[in-house]
Amino acid sequence: MILVTGGTGFVGPHVVHALRAQERDVRVLVRKPGSKGAKIVASWGCELAQGDMTDAESLKRAVEGCDTVVHLVAIPTGSEERFEEIMSHGTRDLVEAARQAGVTRFVHMSALGTSPASKDLTPYFRAKWEQEQTVKASGIDHVIFRPSFVFGGDGGMLPLLVMQVRWSPVIAVVGTKRMQPVWVEDVASYFARALDTPEANGRTFDLVGPDVVTWDELYDRIKRTLGKRRPTFRMPVGVARAGAAVVEKLPTKLPLSPDALTMLEYADNVADLQPAVETFGIQPIGLNEQIRRAVA
Fold it and tell me: CA Rg, the chain, in Å?
C-alpha cells in the first residue's frame, strides 16, 4: 500500500493516477473526504485517510499498513509559522510515523533551487531544505525530486499565462531569469517509476524539461501557439513587488507575493535533465508541446 500526501492538489492527482495505472494500491491523505479532489481519487479506487499534516496522530493512522510513502504536500504562500507547521514539522512527524510503520520507500517532492545557499532566502525554500534533510536522515530508502516550474493544462502557472496572453491587450513581463518547465504528467511518471528503480535510492534528481527559455521567450511561444500579437513591456521588479505586497493582503489566492518575486529573481531555474532521464528512462516533452496541450 502506498500513502500519498498532497494527492488532491495540482500535481498530486497526476501522481495518483500514474500509480493507479500501474494497478498499485493507493491511500490518499485528505483533510475533507467529501471534497471534490477526494471524490476524484476515490473514484479511481483509492482509499481515503482523513488527516492533516499538522495532526501527528492522523499521520500515524494514515501510514499504518503502508510500505511506501509519496510525500507531495507543500504550501506556496503563508506565514513562517505555517511553513514550519505544515511542511517542516509535518514532514518530521510523517517520517517518524513512516519509520514506526516499517515503511521501506519514501519518495519526496522538493523544488528546483532548494540548496544551502537559498534556504535563508524565503520561508518556502527554508521549509523545502528542512524537508529534504529530514528525509535524508530518516534511515528509510528514499528518492528526492526537485521539479522546475511544473506546467499542465489543469492547474499551476501555465493556464494563467495562457489566459493572460489570450485576453490581455498588453503583456507585463516581470521575470528576467531563465526557466526550464516540465510537464506535469512527466513528473508523475518519474514518481511512479521511482518506486521500482533501485539505482535511484538515496539520490536527489532535478526534474526539468528539455527547453531553457527566458520569460520573454515563454510568452512569445504562447503567443505563437494562440496566434496572438500582444505588445509586451518589462515591469520593474520594484513596481511588481509593491503590487505583490498589496495583492498579498487581499482575500484572494493569486500566485503573487513578495516572496514569490524574490524566488523568481534569485537565479535561473534550470538544471541538467540527463541524470533523471538516464536513471528512469523517461524523456520529458518539450515546451512547445506542453503549451499545445494546455491550450487544446
Answer: 19
Please write the tens of the pLDDT for every residue from 52-104.
999 999 999 999 999 999 999 999 888 899 999 999 999 999 999 999 999 99
pLDDT in tens, 158-180: 999 999 999 999 998 887 899 99
Question: Please, are residues 244 and 258 in contact by the beta-carbon 8 Å criterion?
Answer: yes
List, in sequence order, every residue forming a beta bridge with 106; answer none if it has no partner.
69, 142
What CA–CA distance (Å, rounded) separates 39 from 33?
7
Instruction: Show the cell assigned to 17.
Output: 493516477
Structural domains of the chain, ranges and CATH numbers in brackets: 2-150+182-209+270-284 (3.40.50.720)
Which residue type, as a one-letter code, is found at position 249? Answer: K
Is 141 within 8 Å of 201 (Cβ atoms)? yes
Does the predicted TM-score (pTM) go above 0.70?
A: yes
**CA atoms of 11 and 152, how far apart (whole Å):** 9
- Separation of alpha carbons 77 and 262, rounded Å: 12
CA distance 66 to 107: 13
Distance CA 146, CA 283 (A): 16
Residue 81, all three cell numbers: 509559522
Judge contact between 11 and 150, C-beta under 8 A.
Answer: yes
Decide if 265 contacts 175 (C-beta within 8 A): yes
Contact 88, 130 (CB under 8 A): yes
